[in-house]
Amino acid sequence: MKPTILAIAAALVAQSIPAIAAEAPPLRYDLYVRGAFNGWGTDNQLAYKGKGVYETDILVSPGNHAFKIGSKDWNAEWVANPAASVAVKLDNAYPLATEAGPEDYLFTKQTATFRFRVDVSDPSKPVLRISRVETPAGGPAVDPHANAAARAALSFATWDGKQETARFSVQDLQAPLRSYAHSTTVQLRDPGPQYALYQEDAALPRVRSGNLAFDALFALATHEMRLDSVKEIRDGNYNGNEAIPCDCFETGEKWHYVWTRDLSYAADLGLAMLDPQRVRNSLLFKLSGWREGVTPAPQVKGTPDGLQIVQDTGSGGSWPVSTDRITWAFAAEETLKSLPAAERQAFATTALKALANTIDNDRIAAFDKPSGLYTGEESFLDWRDQSYAAWIPDDLASMASSRALSTNVGHYKALSLAAMLAREQGDGARAKRYEGWARDLKRAINQRLWLEDAGMYSSLTAAHFDGAPMHKFDWLGQALAIVTGVADDKRARRILASYPHGPMGAPVIWPQQPGMPVYHNRAMWPFVTGYGLRAAVAGRNVAVADAAYDSLMRGAALNLSNMENLEWLSGQSVLLDEAHPELIGPVINSKRQLWSVGAYLGMVVRNVFGVSATNDGIALHPFVTAKLRGGVFAASNELALNNLRLQGRTLDIKLRLPALAGQGAEGMYAVERILVNGKPAGSAIKWTELAPQNQIEIVLGKLEVGDQAIRRVNADPYVESPAVFSPREPAIATLQRGAGGVTLDIAARDSAGVHYNIYRDGKLVAARLPAGAWTDRQATSTACYAVEAAFGSSGNRSHHSRPRCVDAGIEIPVTDARVRADLPLAAPSPRFDEPHLANWGKPQDRFEVGAIKVPSAGNYAVQVRYHNGANQINLGISGGVKWLAVKDASGAIVAQGVVQLPHARIEKAHTPIVYSTPLAAALQAGRSYRIEMSDFFNMSYLQSNSSFSAAGGLEGPSNRFDIYGVRLLRVR
Q: What's the pLDDT tens digit per position in 251-306?
């Protein structure tokens, strides 16, 4: 039978439907909306809808959210304007540039669903349009506490005079392992229910305190520790965003990778004690040797494989602009204390090898011999515009040459641990060398960074050609100085009494930076608060400890999670500022942030119950304050920490509390006696004294006063008040040398209530000046100047201005006949308007400048004039790191060392050309000198970065940049 015409037509239609559905997408890769609302991950893929259009709908919480359109591996990165961020308006069409650039922003004042539509009908000219769509209705309201057997609530006053409440309940109060319901009245950071459900883990410790809320919050921390315990990790910049097997800790709900500093601080605060094997695995993941084909330069030190700690991607192209990879030592030390003996030795051997290679090369690349300090960015505060001067992002070599308190304390810890391991492993000579370096570093920190007038350490010094310790402070650096013993008891007490606390806790930096959103600036970070608590306990400061206890419990209770960060004056996970959307923040915020989880676990185990691991056992030093006893623990005379498993032993700890003290009592309770399995014991207990199962009883006795000093500050979180903010840093508009001295003109950026201080060569030479002209009549021809602003009302000071020097310097462009290089000169272009050596820096590349003569003898700063556009200023592993040598006519080396050439801003026209970090050289007049630049290494030379998606990764190491010339500047 022949088919009918209708049947034929139906068959043709049927065939056409899959043909239409199978229309090939115009892009050969998947496309994602990646931003602050999803941890810059790949949760929100744009689905192809046909006719060149991709779409996805995203439920977005209130805030001003940075985002980009990008591929899984970031090889495609689309923004509205590669030169500046764009605040996207709804329903407007935005042509996208198909090149890297700053983030765009979407603002919403309430949770809503937005449709992101990208039209790639012309793949070379994609167009973005964002519209609001109706949010699907949720299901019926759920009461998580229905039919509960027991309930509890914690209420907290808000900054604006209201109350927020967290509620807790269990179905079976007597269950060996409880299941908790936890709800909150606070507006959560991310869309989702206003409650959480979690349960205790049979393999982890649990608390019974007589306070259901306290027990629940500890269970929440152990639950989130389990959620952060993964079998594989991933990051869009590595391995094409494909999974990497690793029994590791991931960094948080929005961060699925292992970052050196996050892991290290989290482990040190609490995780290493509870899961040392997983911490060890994660620490090993952050070690790497040389990648295939790399032959280290002769100046590089270490074992042939080059095994060392990885500095994560970051400012200016990573290490050694940033040098806090050595924080790895904090975690390694705690892990070595907690690993069983059978596993400890192998890890100790690897740890010493990696530490030694790291220490010895950091000593070459990042140690400033004149000051005795290490250079590099502040630890953890790695969004340079949040905590550095406004001009620093345009001159990252000046950030690279500054010295930071937190990073230097990290180096002290690394040196101390390496010395201990070297001695333990029979390398006495190495141990002695590292012990000496650690001792000298501790002395230098106390001599160079302590500010007696402030009663605190400066967080960082100004850059080269200035170098003064600035009146800038950070809580992490101060706390680390105390807990490592860098600060003596007297200085520890002053720090704890001097660092400011807001009503919700201590900010991570002080004072706050004007014109910046909340992230590191204007923020509390629970892990930093955790270190503040440890410092307070070490310094016996009850008031500061109570502030930390309050802050950590409040943050976890109201937000249903141990959040990444919180605005510091309101305690909110996002401070919505409709009048200034560019100041909204925290800019990004993740639940179950690993170091926040570690901080909460450490607060309970290490501080309340007082249990810490030692090299041969445990120590017991509980810190229960009168406020805790009369508040959180008022309903019980006993606290219990059960099922704490250490070194194959189980510890059940009872903390017996004294009677409630009278109203207004202050202090902390002394330990009256300790019993281990019924026998009296001291506060230090060796592993050999413990059985497989142990009952430990700690009885607290008299109330000791301790220290009650705390500095309290407050302000409206929506106002840039001089009480809590610094002024904007000024600038030196002009600098002229005349017969009467050197006259400089101070250009103000803030005027009301501000005065100015002038520094010459890092020393204060004039104070409390108005803006305008000032003449230095003691000036020399080698002087360099910087200016800071200060509020008269609060004394809060700005960062220093960009330094300006009297000497104009000797500039030698690459067009000079004295320049020798293997590459031909590149012609000027609209973007690079001078001749230059383009993409110089392969290991075999040669660059020399000969026959250099200086007009007068003295100290000179030798710098390379360059541009490094390998990546953006906040990303990558391709910062230039080279060896620079100055030789005389005989070939003798006059000066040599590492110079850094970090990433610089990339502009469409007239891209700014910058200078490297300086090499100091003492030169004589009339003699002939030669400058030679050769290879050193950066993080792209490591195997761990071989799958990195950008420069220095898949296509091989990248240590290249454009050279425009050299400069010799005469300085003091």
A: 999 999 999 999 999 999 999 999 999 999 999 999 999 999 999 999 999 999 99
* Phi–psi pair at 27, nearest 5 degrees: -100, 145
CA 259 vs CA 252, 284, 310, 377: distances in Å: 11, 12, 9, 16
Q: What is the pLDDT of residues 84-124, one digit of tens each?
A: 899 999 999 999 999 888 999 999 999 999 999 999 999 89
**Class at the top of the CATH hierarchy for domain 32-133:** mainly beta
If you search the block for the tokens 């630890």, which residue do you land on?
Answer: 379
DSSP code of residue 602: H
- In this predicted structure, what is the pLDDT of residue 16? 40
d(CA 313, CA 291): 17
Q: What is the mean pLDDT of residues 331-343?
A: 97
* H/E stretch holding 444: helix 428-448
Q: What is the pLDDT of residues 47-61, one digit of tens each?
A: 999 999 999 999 999
In whole angstroms, what is the distance from residue 549 CA to residue 531 CA?
11
pLDDT of residue 376: 97
Assigned CATH class of 319-487: mainly alpha
Q: Which of 300, 280, 276 is nearest to 289 (CA)?
A: 300
Question: Which CATH number fits the domain 731-798, given the four candidates 2.60.40.10, 3.40.50.800, 3.40.50.300, 3.50.50.60?
Answer: 2.60.40.10
Q: How many residues does the chain have?
A: 972
All CATH 1.50.10.10 domain ranges of the chain, comma separated, are 319-487
Of 2.60.200.20, 3.40.30.10, 2.60.120.260, 2.20.25.110, the CATH number of 810-971 is: 2.60.120.260
Report how far residue 452's alpha carbon sits from residue 371's, in angstroms, rounded to the nearest whole number: 18
Tell which residue, 913, 906, 774, has the closest CA to residue 835: 913
